[in-house]
Design a protein that fits this description.
242 residues, Rossmann fold, 2 domains, 11 helices, elongated
């Protein structure tokens, strides 16, 4: 059985895809979000960085901003922007590294950027922006809320060793998961789990928990379809634990 730690809407979507392939899963969202009720002044003089679906959710609530200039991380984020009639998408990147390369180009680095983020930010990306002296302001438009406990079913299945794999789409969800294991005094050595992660950055973060070699499997691309393909390829390992 695989534990899905994504926010509830995203988790349900992933679970449905895995169900089609007869992969057993359990949902326990380890993060949720609260939108900030603060006014943001949008300007044609700025280029806005949108790196998450939560960012799209906030922008979709605001009227008369469909023509703002936006650069995007992730095809799914771009798709949702287009679905909400945002028309001026300048660039769509796979990840923040690719986005940074675009921003560093001579014709782009003179732009004034606004990074629309949550309360928990990608510090590596921010450090890169500062390192290359790219002009930007950060606007926090939503709060990331960390879960303080596992669901009862999650605790039960962990203690019964029925959850033999976990999927992480962010460093934050991974940190919450391992923190809660410690809270419930569940030893990693007894779990024998595989961890599916969306990026190398998340993988590096997981290594600080001294996981055994080979238990982290990285999605070839930081995309949902790529992650699903990775999970399907390891279906035999997941369903063995049931």
């Amino acid at each position: 059985m695989i534990l899905i730690t994504r926010p509830i809407d995203d988790a349900v979507e992933l679970q449905q895809e895995l169900k089609k392939k007869k992969i057993l899963s359990l949902i326990d969202p380890l993060t949720s979000f609260k939108f900030q009720n603060r006014k943001i002044k949008f300007s044609d003089a700025h280029v806005y960085i949108c790196a998450s679906q939560r960012c799209v959710d906030v922008l979709a609530r605001i009227k008369n901003i469909n023509n703002i200039s936006i650069i995007v991380v992730g095809k799914k984020v771009a798709k949702r922007l287009k679905e909400n009639n945002f028309k001026n998408i300048l660039f769509i990147s796979h990840d923040t590294q690719q986005l940074m390369k675009w921003m560093r180009k001579k014709e782009n680095r003179q732009n004034n950027y606004v990074y629309l983020s949550g309360s928990i930010v990608n510090q590596i990306f921010v450090s890169e922006l500062k390192k290359y002296k790219i002009s930007f302001k950060r606007k926090v438009i939503y709060e990331t809320i960390l879960k303080k406990s596992f669901n009862r079913k999650t605790i039960k299945f962990l203690k019964q060793n029925k959850i033999n794999s976990v999927v992480f789409y962010s460093k934050t969800s991974a940190d919450v998961y391992f923190k809660l294991l410690k809270k419930y005094k569940i030893s990693l050595s007894t779990l024998d789990q595989i961890y599916f992660v969306l990026s190398a950055r998340i993988s590096e973060n997981c290594k600080k928990y001294k996981l055994e070699q080979g238990v982290i499997k990285i999605s070839p691309k930081p995309e949902q379809s790529s992650m699903i393909s990775l999970i399907i390829a390891n279906k035999h390992l997941i369903n063995n634990g049931k």
